[in-house]
């Protein structure tokens, strides 16, 4: 099960919290945090809690955003070297999705920083912007892997 910890401004667009008592993430990558960039065309920003890896995709149509997010996560896993079996298992686990409020202020802070950086780089293609953000040093990762893409690759290797 994919647990998406969404900001209030995103939950207003994609739906209310629906986590049931006792449910936990079953994905290998853990929980994801999400918000939206209120640009001319809204953009969904996903950030993996353990690695801080950012994923960007158009929010519209909001009704299909979570299923498209799962596909985008799988594509990003392939980009950073995950094997096909791990990707297939992760996609299977993400078929069930739950929306909950944010809980980790550090990850919310990183999302705020990514939002600031993205606002100043709006002219970039989303894939290029995503790769640039993934290579951005993040203070919670300074003692370990420095950048989200390095942390993500390390998690894939475990």
What does this structure look like?
There is one protein chain. With about 160 residues, the protein is of the alpha/beta class. The chain has one domain (about 1-155). The protein is built from 6 helices and 5 strands. It is globular. Helix 2 runs antiparallel to helix 3. A 5-stranded mixed beta sheet has the order 4-3-2-1-5, with helices on both faces. The two termini are about 20 Å apart. The longest helix has 15 residues, at about 65-80. A hairpin with a 5-residue loop joins strand 3 (about 45-50) and strand 4 (about 55-60). InterPro entries: DUF6933. Pfam families: DUF6933. It comes from Dactylosporangium maewongense. This is DUF6933 domain-containing protein.
Chain-wise SSE layout:
Layout: E1 2-6, H1 8-14, E2 32-37, E3 43-48, E4 54-58, H2 65-79, H3 84-93, E5 97-101, H4 105-119, H5 126-134, H6 148-157
Helix pairs in contact: 2-3
Briefly characterize the structure:
The chain has 158 residues and is α/β, with parallel strands linked by helices. 42% of the residues lie in helices and 17% in strands.
Structural class computed from helices and strand pairing: alpha/beta
Count of helix runs: 6
Mean pLDDT: 91
Which consecutive residue ranges, at least 5 long each, have pLDDT under 50? none
Major sheet strand order: 4-3-2-1-5
Provide the succession of SSEs. EHEEEHHEHHH
Q: Report the major sheet.
A: 5 strands, mixed
* Relative helix content: 40-55%
């Amino acid at each position: 099960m994919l647990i998406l910890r969404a900001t209030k401004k995103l939950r207003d667009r994609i739906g209310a919290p629906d986590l049931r008592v006792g449910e936990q993430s079953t994905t290998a990558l853990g929980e994801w945090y999400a918000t939206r960039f209120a640009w001319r065309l809204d953009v969904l920003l996903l950030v993996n809690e353990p690695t801080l890896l950012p994923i960007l995709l158009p929010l519209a149509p909001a009704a299909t955003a979570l299923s498209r997010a799962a596909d985008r996560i799988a594509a990003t896993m392939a980009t950073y070297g995950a094997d096909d079996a791990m990707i297939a298992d992760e996609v299977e686990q993400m078929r069930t999705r739950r929306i909950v409020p944010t809980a980790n202020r550090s990850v919310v802070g990183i999302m705020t920083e990514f939002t600031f950086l993205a606002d100043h780089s709006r002219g970039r293609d989303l894939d290029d912007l995503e790769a640039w953000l993934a290579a951005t040093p993040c203070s919670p990762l300074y003692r370990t892997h420095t950048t989200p893409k390095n942390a993500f690759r390390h998690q894939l290797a475990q």
